[in-house]
Amino acid sequence: MFPNIAPYASLSALATLGSPHFIPMTAIEPQRIADALRLTLDFFRRLEAIQHPESVYHLVSWNYMPASGSSLIHPHLQVFATSVAPNLLQQELDAAQAYLKAHGRNYWEDLVQAEKEAQARFLGTIGRSAWLTAYAPLGVAGDVIAVVEGARRTLELTEADISDLSQGLVRAMAAYDKIGIYSFNMSFFSGAVNDDHARFHLLFSPRSYFNPALGTPDVAALRNLFNESICMAYPEEINQILRPEFAEA
Fold first, then answer.
1. Given pLDDT bands bounded at 50, 70 and 90, which one contains residue 248?
2. DSSP string, the chain
3. Going by C-beta distance under 8 Å and a sequence separation of 6 or more, which residues neighbour residue 65?
4. Which of 27, 35, 207, 222 is most buried, judging by how many CB atoms fall within 10 Å of its CB?
């Protein structure tokens, strides 16, 4: 881990996934991911220990391969802590807080329970993490969400949670690889201390080129200027494609 030359926040670092310059998506092992995530948690705990004022939201993002916006082939994580939540995270936290006030229940727990009962978008559970395809995806090939039961923020993840999330990410990668998608964005969504309305979750969003020969990205004016998402299939259809990789979950 080392400082980020293009920081996302005042406390911003990079964590590499080892020495190989290129690792194919299907060759990334769960242990490699888990080791990198443990390194990021150690960084966050050190910030927490010194009570740094920016140590509020502890976030990790991963842009894998150029279609995701990555400027490097070498696999690495963006690691940052900030006292100001990114826009979408803040919107989620505000909505979850309003839901708790209106219904007396945690939104994320209700979501997981509803998806588990309906089954159409539910992929499975790995330890405390519940995996599902997003009902309103941001990506053109759908999104995968993992919600960790009982964890409000990144620093409440256990060693087992880290291993389980790493295993789930590898399964998502394997599933998308089979349909010819080899790039993705991944981000942590975390609450702050005592945010009882929050549940830690990660969002995995595959990325691709609309025209690989021209390098045409999968984000055009509708998404970039109007913030309107386009998905090439229904989430329930995408779920059926991904589900075999999660069959053991």
1. low
2. -EE-SS-SSSEEEEEES-S-S---GGG--HHHHHHHHHHHHHHHHHHHHTT-TTTTEEEEEEEESGGGT-S-SS-EEEEEEESS--HHHHHHHHHHHHHHHHHSS-HHHHHHHHHHHH-SSEEEEETTEEEEE-SS-SSTT--EEEEETT--SGGG--HHHHHHHHHHHHHHHHHHHTTT--EEEEEEE---TT-TT---EEEEEEE-EEETTTTEES--HHHHHH-----SS-HHHHHHHHGGGGTT-
3. 25, 73, 182, 183, 184, 207
4. 207
Q: Report all structural domains of the chain as residue ranges with CATH numbers, in order of start.
A: 2-246 (3.30.428.10)
User: Given phi > 0 = left and psi -120 to 50 = alpha, else beta, which region is 124?
Assistant: left
Collect all residues with Cβ–Cβ distance below 8 Å to 235 and sequence separation of at least 6. Answer: 121, 133, 134, 135, 136, 137, 142
Q: Say yes or no to pLDDT of 249 above 60.
A: no
The overall average pLDDT reported for the chain is 96
Tell me if 120 sits within 8 A of 134, measured CB to CB: no
Structure-block tokens of residue 105: 């229940």
pLDDT tens-digit map of 207-228 = 999 998 898 999 999 999 999 9
**Residue 127: predicted pLDDT:** 97
Q: pTM of whole model > 0.85? A: yes
Question: What pLDDT score does 237 carry?
Answer: 97
